[in-house]
Design brief:
Blueprint (H helix, E strand, L loop, with lengths): L7 H10 L34 H18 L4 E6 L4 E6 L6 H16 L4 H8 L18 E6 L2 E9 L3 H16 L2
Antiparallel strand pairs: 1-2, 1-4, 3-4
Helix pairs in contact: 2-5
Length: 179
């Protein structure tokens, strides 16, 4: 197998490092788990929490994309401390997605990275023990909100496929960045 008996801390470092070794035929490149990066990856400093006005812009951007595509989804925005600031529940969306959208947003804020990275750790590299880290959700659709180089919160969308959720979250981020 590709992995060694690593501690959870080493796994976290490896996921953060993200470097890759040579690819084997038909398999994704496996990150070098022993690599020690010279700088701390994903070290976005925390900034002031997202305001309600900003959170509403994010929700509106995601909602506009939902309506355009006809996808009934849920969208959550959390602040830099991963506390819920705003939430949109579309009629007809699956009820499980209420909690999942918030969970994706919390992951993105707490870990300062997109939830897609956790999905890749589990699906591409089979690092199932990555799921033992507190607050991890291995499903795309959670994206940090960054303003002036500082993390102010995160958005999480759920209700469709991971790729659909990601499209909506990105639409929310784009709406925040439009001034």
């Amino acid at each position: 197998m590709y992995f060694r008996n690593l501690t959870v801390a080493a796994l976290g470092l490896a996921l953060l490092a993200g470097g890759a070794q040579a690819q084997q035929a038909g398999k994704p490149a496996i990150p070098n788990l022993d690599a020690v990066p010279p700088q701390m990856p994903f070290n976005i400093p925390y900034g002031p929490p997202v305001t309600l006005e900003q959170a509403k812009r994010v929700i509106a951007g995601a909602e506009a994309e939902m309506k355009k595509r006809g996808w009934p989804e849920m969208c959550a925005v959390v602040d830099s401390g991963a506390n819920l600031v705003a939430f949109e529940r579309e009629d007809g969306g699956q009820l499980a997605s209420i909690a999942i959208a918030e969970h994706k947003a919390r992951f993105a804020a707490l870990y300062r990275r997109e939830s897609l990275l956790a999905e890749n750790a589990v699906q591409k590299f089979h690092w199932n023990y990555f799921m033992t880290l507190d607050g991890v959700i291995a499903s795309r659709g959670g994206i940090p909100l960054v303003e002036n180089g500082k993390l102010i919160g995160a958005v999480g969308c759920s209700g469709g496929t991971g790729s659909q959720d990601e499209v909506l979250a990105k639409a929310g981020v784009a709406a925040l960045n439009k001034k």
